Amino acid sequence: MGYKVAVIGATGNVGHEILQILAEREFPADDVVALASAKSVGREVSFGEDEILKVRDLETFDFTGCDIALSSPGAKVSAIHSPRAAKAGCVVIDNTSHFRMDPEVPLVVPEVNPHHLADYGRKNIIANPNCSTIQMVVALKPLHDLATIRRVVVATYQSVSGAGRDGMDELFNQTKGIYVNDPPAKEKFTKQIAFNVIPHIDVFMEDGSTKEEWKMMVETKKILDPRIKLTATCVRVPVFIGHAEAINIEFENPISAEEARAVLKNAPGITVIDHRADEGYVTPVESAGDDQVYVSRVREDPTVENGLSLWVVSDNLRKGAALNAVQIAEALVESHLKVPA
Question: Does 341 fall in a domain?
């Protein structure tokens, strides 16, 4: 027997990817249910290449008998329905920001802190981290184990798909409009995104940081090590899929670029492509549709003691969201959940 799995937010970008990845990785599910808001009821979504699911109403769905829910409908919706599913005995893997900093909810990247899954039973909810945090901590973990990270300075280059389908549509429509001299319409983003970059993701906080930058700091501490100091500048760029990050790291202990490359090459979920030549690095375009976290441009920073700089790229819809959620589900059934009778 397999598990009964609910996908909440099945009509969104991340929900679509979750359904595809569940099928690709042959997750042991006997029954998969697609859920979304009432306006999407009856729509058809693909589960793998051959199966079509009809969307059901999240508001009225009874989670009794469901084993796992993979949830990505937005924080406000998750705040209502994830606890409802958890109360019915379903383990919820929540991809929104709502539960990430709850001390009773584990925040998990399977390559980094799978041992935190042991705490899932406190609320029957596991949180999926922010997309920019996920790819960064996958790269930081083996380096932290080797030389102990003291401080991180990161600048992100985040694709518009991180803002959902509306963000992708806005980039497409603005780009098309510029070629015919139409003024760019701003709806999703605060400034023109086509042929531009915007140093503003999520709301501003009192100290001048944006909430996206704050998320990277607090989530890294919760996932990897509370002693790590981190400052981030998060930037939206006119790319459809794939986040990139320029990461500068200061370590407590000496570490060379060669040592860093070697440990990264042997780490799970990472592919190192680092040739000091034209095209010897990975860009977001090459990461789209791929599951790996790519590391390039590994070099020593001579301006600080024990410093390194890296370039890290990953598909934000897959490893940054859907894949990580499915990997959490896989680790959960491998170590914690019994196979249904």
Answer: no
